[in-house]
Amino acid sequence: MSKLKIADESCQKLNKLLNSAVNNTGKGLVEQKPEKPVLPKKERSKEQELVDLMGEVLTKISGGLTDEFGWMVYDQLSKSCYTKSNSLDTVKHICTEMQGIAPKDQIEGMLATQMIATHHAALNCFRIVAESETIDMLNLAVNSANKLTRTYASQMEALNRYRGKGQQKMTVGHVHINSGGQAIIEESVVKDGCRDPLVVWNNTIIDGHHRSPVTLSSDNKGKTLEILAKQADVSYGKLFQYNKILEKGSEEEKLAVRNNEISIKGALQKIQKAERLENNKAVEWPKVSAFFEHQCL
After folding, report:
1. What order of strands is seen across the sheet that includes strand 183-191?
2. What mean pLDDT is predicted for residues 183-189?
3. Which of 13-27, 30-44, 185-199, 231-245 shows the lowest per-residue confidence on average (mean pLDDT)?
4. Residue 165: which residues within 8 A CB-CB, separation 6 or more?
5. What is the pLDDT of residues 200-219, one digit of tens each?
6. Which of 149, 171, 176, 291 is the most buried (most CB within 10 A)?
């Protein structure tokens, strides 16, 4: 029998005891503080074990170090996630949702508590939207629901950052050396595993494989394909040159490219000659599927 099932059974017995206490004495155990419930003395020895077991379950699923933290989380959620159904259903909902988030420590447990409370509040607003009879009530409920759902997304992002699963960013520097021996370093950003290269071509920067080209400023004019040929990471230059030959070259040149028999220098000269006729025109980044098919890189 799992601990959660045992905890559910204990909640059923606790619920009966709470109801009997309220009916018999007019004061109930409901007025007790959020710490461990105090049971009647006659039932203490038998039921206290179940209470302790439930405390262990709450502590484990909430990421706490002590039973007091588990009972505190339970008390906060039972009040913020109020439903018209009986308390047993509330316990089941809280335990199931907390177990799904699986906090590893008390900070994650508190974030999980906020997320569960925000989720229930948002759904309660959506319920009000469905039952609204006036425009004012509808707008108010919709606005509140939107704010709560955005808050939930922020809380989830904060939890992921705390767990080390946040978005990572890495900068890669490309070194270009011109004919005068001066090195030019251009940066490209690697984000979410995708690389956006900055390629210099005839006074034009090609920013990524599927982006529009950006014309270089007057300070950067004069950069030629020789810079591209001498760069440390030459694969992008090779890709671009071979693409241009496949796009504008003769059948023999295309065949030579596919057989990888044209040197980088020769390819640069042919492409540079063709580009002189179209100087200062934006160069679109062509399709690259042919290179991968023929393994020209």
Report:
1. 169-177, 183-191, 194-196
2. 46
3. 185-199
4. none
5. 444 444 444 433 333 434 44
6. 176
For residue 111, the surrounding DSSP H or E stretch is helix 106-131
52-65 b/e (C-beta count within 10 Å ≥ 16 → b): eebbebbbebbbbe
**Phi, psi for 287 (deg, rounded to 5):** -70, 150
Q: Which two tokens stand for residue 281?
A: 């025109």
Going from the C-alpha of 164 to that of each of 104, 160, 167, the distances in angstroms are 13, 6, 9
Distance from C-alpha of 241 to C-alpha of 269, rounded to nearest angstrom: 10
Task: Specify whether the CB–CB gap between 200 and 223 falls below 8 A.
Answer: yes
Q: What is the CA radius of gyration of the chain?
A: 34
Closest CA to 125 of 115, 113, 137: 137
- Asked if 95 contacts 7 with a C-beta cutoff of 8 angstroms, the reply is yes
Question: ∠ CA 138-141-147 to the nearest 5 degrees?
Answer: 140
Comparing C-alpha atoms, which of 195, 201, 196, 210 is closest to residue 176? 201
- Name residues whose C-beta falls within 8 Å of residue 65's C-beta, 6 or more positions apart in sequence: 59, 106
What per-residue confidence (pLDDT) applies to 149? 92
Q: Which residue has the tokens 């502590």?
A: 59
Give domain limits for the chain.
3-162, 170-294
The label of the residue with tokens 């920067």 reads 205
- Token pair of 146 as six digits: 């939107």
Q: What is the pLDDT of residues 94-119, one digit of tens each?
A: 788 888 888 888 889 899 989 999 99
CA distance 295 to 256: 13
DSSP string for 122-164: HHHHHHHHHH--SHHHHHHHHHHHHHHHHHHHHHHHHHHHHTT
